[in-house]
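Need residues for this backbone.
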């Protein structure tokens, strides 16, 4: 559906009345904070490139364009979208923006919020709003582009997106090595001496901690960054492979492996001050001994993935309660559970403004991002 067809579908849903669900490729309808209402009628924005000006490093696409299609188009001009989120290359750009999807080892640690320049959305009244533009500094007043980024389609159905691109670096490698000492030693080393490169530490049960770092640039820069990785005490550091996720023929790239998440897994994201990372890791280890953890030293965030989903709510509550009181932190459920508490009054009033008939995606009433401060 193009923008006008989406608008017509919303107006007829208001008249029916019925609820609607924005759907991209439909790979993550079970995830995030949104009610997955089987009775909702599906609104599927179309895909395709609207305008691509390589010289401006900007592309405008319909929201149903998959990341794979986007990458193939940009790769022909030596350019790329800087992030490749968890999930698959079949994800649509509209959904990635709507969910503000997280991405492992994103180039320069970008998030999709950093890259969306503008978008078109259809609100719950059927009105079409065109937000932002095609240049980096294009917002005066309240930033509705970022309000819709991560709103999970609760405020509008995104139909078109303008994103900023980057030139593909000549070298783009993932370096990996084993961190042999305890987290309280290497967390401080990584946080205090952080090199300008995206890093993640993977902690799988019964295995030593493994550091992944994305080294990009020309030959000289990439090899200097590799040296820095070794200086962090990463034993046996070696180049694992390319991190070019835009190349669909390279599904075994390290980033592609990190992006893979089983649909049945419980996935949480916890965040604290980077320097408190070791305490957060310890608390997660106690609550989820069987989980694989991914620690992001620059953000102080910890991704917790476990296939043991029994008593998920109780285990999450135990995790929250076990953290030291002096450590501020927040927990978000990405998929597989639905902890407590309602949206704030501000959330509800913004929702009423953009979706007065309540026909767009709704947050699960019991869902909340738990902030412990
Ligand atoms: C197994 C798995 C694990 C994942 N884990 C994470 C994770 O931990 N963290 C994370 O951030 N992302 C995660 N993702 C999400 C992923 O990065 C993409 O955002 C998602 O897959 C989008 O692809 P899609 O087109 O299939 O979206 P869909 O499944 O079609 O939609 C995803 C959500 O976005 C809404 N939506 C879709 N299109 C629009 C639109 N045009 N306008 C408004 N709302 C829209 C849908 O209603 C739905 O709530 C995961 C995906 C998978 C498959």
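Answer:
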């Amino acid at each position: 559906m193009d923008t006008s067809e989406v608008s017509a579908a919303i107006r007829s849903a208001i008249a029916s009345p019925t609820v609607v669900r924005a759907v991209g490729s439909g790979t993550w309808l079970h995830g995030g904070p949104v009610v997955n209402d089987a009775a909702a009628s599906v609104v599927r924005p179309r895909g395709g490139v609207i305008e691509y000006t390589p010289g401006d490093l900007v592309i405008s696409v319909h929201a149903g364009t998959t990341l794979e299609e986007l990458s193939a188009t940009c790769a022909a001009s030596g350019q790329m979208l800087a992030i490749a989120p968890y999930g698959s290359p079949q994800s649509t750009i509209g959904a990635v923006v709507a969910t503000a999807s997280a991405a492992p080892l994103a180039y320069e640690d970008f998030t999709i919020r950093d890259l969306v320049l503008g978008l078109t959305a259809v609100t719950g009244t059927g009105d079409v709003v065109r937000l932002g533009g095609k240049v980096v500094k294009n917002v005066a007043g309240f930033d509705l582009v970022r309000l819709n980024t991560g709103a999970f389609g609760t405020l509008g159905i995104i139909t078109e997106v303008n994103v900023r691109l980057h030139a593909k670096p000549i070298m783009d490698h993932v370096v990996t090595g084993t961190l042999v000492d305890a987290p309280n030693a290497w967390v401080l080393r990584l946080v205090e001496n952080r090199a300008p490169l995206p890093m993640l530490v993977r902690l799988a049960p019964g295995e030593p901690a493994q550091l992944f770092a994305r080294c990009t640039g020309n030959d000289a820069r990439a090899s200097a960054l590799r040296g820095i990785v070794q200086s962090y005490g990463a034993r046996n550091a070696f180049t694992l492979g390319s991190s070019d996720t835009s190349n669909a023929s390279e599904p075994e790239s390290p980033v592609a492996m990190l992006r893979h998440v089983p649909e049945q897994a419980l996935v949480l994201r916890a965040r604290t001050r980077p320097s408190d990372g070791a305490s957060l890791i310890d608390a997660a280890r106690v609550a989820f001994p069987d989980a694989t953890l991914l620690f992001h030293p620059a953000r102080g965030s910890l991704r917790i993935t476990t296939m043991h989903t029994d008593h998920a709510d109780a285990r999450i509550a135990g995790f929250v309660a076990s953290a030291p009181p002096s450590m501020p932190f927040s927990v978000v459920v990405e998929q597989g559970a639905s902890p407590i508490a309602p949206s704030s009054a501000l959330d509800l009033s913004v929702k009423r403004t953009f979706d007065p008939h309540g026909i767009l995606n709704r947050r699960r009433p019991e869902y909340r991002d738990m902030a412990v401060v």
